[in-house]
Amino acid sequence: MIPEEKIFEDKIAREVRIEPRDWMPADYRKLLIRQMSQHAHSEIVGMLPEGNWITRAPSLRRKATLIAKVQDEAGHGLYLYSATETLGITREETIDQLHSGKAKYSSIFNYPTLTWADIGAIGWLVDGAAIMNQVPLCRASFGPYARAMVRICKEESFHQRQGFEILLTLSRGSEAQKHMCQDAINRWWWPSVMMFGPPDDASPHNQKSMQWKIKRFSNDELRQKFIDVCAEQVRVLGMKLPDDKMKWNEDEQHYDFGEINWTEFREVVNGNGPCNKERLEARKKAHAEGAWVREAAAAYAGKKNHSSNNQ
Ligand code: 3HC
After folding, report:
1. How far apart are the C-alpha atoms of 5 and 11, rounded to whole Å?
2. What's the confidence (pLDDT) of residue 311?
3. Quick one: pLDDT at residue 268?
4. How many CA atoms lie within 13 A of 25 on its CB side?
5. Residue 134 CA: which ligand 1 atom is closest?
6. Would the pTM count as exceeding 0.85?
7. Best of 48, 269, 279 to mutate for ligand 1, by most ligand atoms within 8 A of CB?
8. What is the pLDDT of residues 168-183, one digit of tens each?
9. Cβ distance 245 to 257 under 8 Å?
10. With a cut of 70, which residues of the chain have pLDDT below it?
11. Rounded to the nearest whole angstrom, what is the distance from the C-alpha of residue 35 to the centroid of ligand 1?
12. In ligand 1, which atom is closest to the CA atom of 202?
């Protein structure tokens, strides 16, 4: 082991943050660029299903809250793209990887938002799953990632609360509203459970990611925590989770749950989900239409640098 690697491993063991200028194994850098850029892509693509309901929110308060949430997701994406750039990859390269289909984003955002209740289900379940996954990432070994997560998690809890409140309102409404609430939970439950990734024994990155303290818990551990929390919360809504195998296991102190449809997961991750094509087309169109803003900002920055160099 070369001296730099020994220093690196020692820092990981002592919970000393790895910073961009520190020596790091090429595989550590690669693992981080992959996960952080895909996390950023997920935040940006995640704006699309919810943005779809901003013009149709049922009240000004709901509209203002949803606009704030979607804006937050854009900010999360920017923190994460900036943190990824500290590892030596440009913003253009990461965006190209998304647009070319080389990079992934979270499977969950390839499902359609069919009713207003979906916005509640996304807040409660998708942001709830994101919080379960992201709180441990606040202790990730790579400094910029961990620090971005601290800021992001603060905003996620607002996202989850507003989603749960939407469902609570519907669950106390008319029969049609109750039906809409249960229908959204039925459609978003299993895709949210899949968000945590493949089972641990089918996860090629789990072992390295845990060894280098990027991940603090495995996919299955976080999935189980999420299921245990939601199984209790759904009672407050007076609704049911669409899993008739879900049952409290006294010995394990966990909820047992039914089979996850990994074929569906693989299909969605491989681009064959209900909205994959639409999502990527929307991102490419927005990027093309935003080119003039990037050019103007670059021209302004260039002009500013030029005049400050001449002072
Ligand atoms: N969707 C798409 N791809 C997924 C996936 C999912 N839900 N879960 C796993 N994968 C991919 C992985 O990216 C990997 O493919 P790759 O090698 O091409 O990158 C492959 O499946 C194997 O999965 P692993 O479990 O081995 O991969 P990881 O160790 O990276 O674990 C992860 C997957 C748990 C998603 C991890 O990457 C992670 O914690 N990422 C950070 C959190 C994140 O990205 N969350 C996405 C949602 S963001 C969000 O919800 C925003 C909120 O505000 C709404």
Report:
1. 10
2. 67
3. 98
4. 17
5. 42
6. yes
7. 269
8. 999 999 999 999 999 9
9. yes
10. 311
11. 7
12. 26
